[in-house]
Amino acid sequence: MQKWEKALNKFMQRYVNKPWFEGAVLCGSYSTGNQNKFSDIDVVIVGSNDLGWQEKSNCYVDGFLMEYTINPIYKVKEFMESGFERHRLIDQNMYAYGVILYDKHGEIKKLHQQAVRDTKKKLKPFSKYSNDFTKYHLWDKYDELKSLHNDGFHTDLVYWTLVNMLIEAYYNFNCLPHVSWSKIEKILTNKEFAKRYHADKLPDKKFTNLLMGCFDAKQKDKMSAITKLYNYVMKSGGGFEIGQFKARRKIEKQ
After folding, report:
1. How far apart (Å, rounded) are the C-alpha atoms in residues 157 and 55?
2. What is the spatial order of strands in the sheet that 21-27 belongs to?
3. I want to staple 221 with a disulfide (CB 3.0 to 4.6 A). Which of 17, 138, 212, 217 is the partner?
4. How far is CA 87 from CA 9, 55, 123, 183, in A?
5. 88 near 178, Cβ under 8 Å?
6. CA distance 47 to 87
């Protein structure tokens, strides 16, 4: 048993005999074998439905940082449902692909099965109203960037903000499950890394190349690089003309 495993086992002894304890799952880099010296040990702890509280915390055990959450079963199900609607399958990935450490009454297995089903389902597109507003905000930020660039001001802050917005918009427009932005370069350029993170639903190659172009662009080439990415993302969302922008939806009267 490795040192980190001993530390994890020591940490779990705080909870396994609690009357509300249902089980626990090891997630993150230690569950995939991708850990490095900066990695913490991610654990999700599940309590019974009568657990009247939830917790997110961190602590050190024998030099290893434990990052953990505690939630009752029904809360985990709520997180998975709302995450699916928002195209963010964080909880599904934890329960589908994490390592089950404890499962007292079979509830963790049920969560695992639900999570696996969710990861195989097709995500639902966002409403036209939502997508139109997304495109408006992209246009607005891109317009700000062009103005700053034209006036000779620093553009890096707005540039990287727009890159982030374009990534998120592309994933939303194309009904792709979101991935961690801190890992997106590795996921999009390293097939083995993507496989370890079960990222099998990926953007097309052109988007990847344009995004990497924004990452790699020298200062003088940044406007050209982000313009290409901006145009491609807008086209993937159905196109956009600011002079024709109109977003309307019904509202419920009070």
Report:
1. 34
2. 55-61, 64-72, 41-47, 21-27, 99-103
3. 217
4. 33, 24, 7, 17
5. yes
6. 26
In b/e form, how buried is each residue of 67-94, taking b as 16+ CB within 10 angstroms? bbbbbbbebbbebbeebbeebbbebbbb
SS3 79: helix
Unique residue bearing structure tokens 């409403």: 127
Q: What is the pLDDT of residues 8-36, one digit of tens each?
A: 999 999 999 999 999 999 999 999 888 89
Q: Are strands 41-47 and 21-27 parallel, antiparallel or unpaired?
A: antiparallel
Query: Six-digit token pair at 90?
Result: 């964080």
Could you give the percent of the chain with pLDDT greater than 70? Answer: 100
**Burial group, residue 110, by CB count within 10 angstroms (0-12, 13-18, 19+):** middle
Give the chain's mean pLDDT: 96
Measure the CA–CA gap between 27 and 42, rounded to whole angstroms: 5
**Which two three-digit tokens encode residue 252?**
């419920």
Model pLDDT for residues 122-143, shown as the tens digit of each residue: 999 999 999 999 999 999 999 9
Q: Alpha helices, DSSP H only, in 106-178? A: 107-120, 128-151, 156-173
DSSP 16: T
State which fold the 3-120 domain adopts: Beta Polymerase; domain 2 (3.30.460)
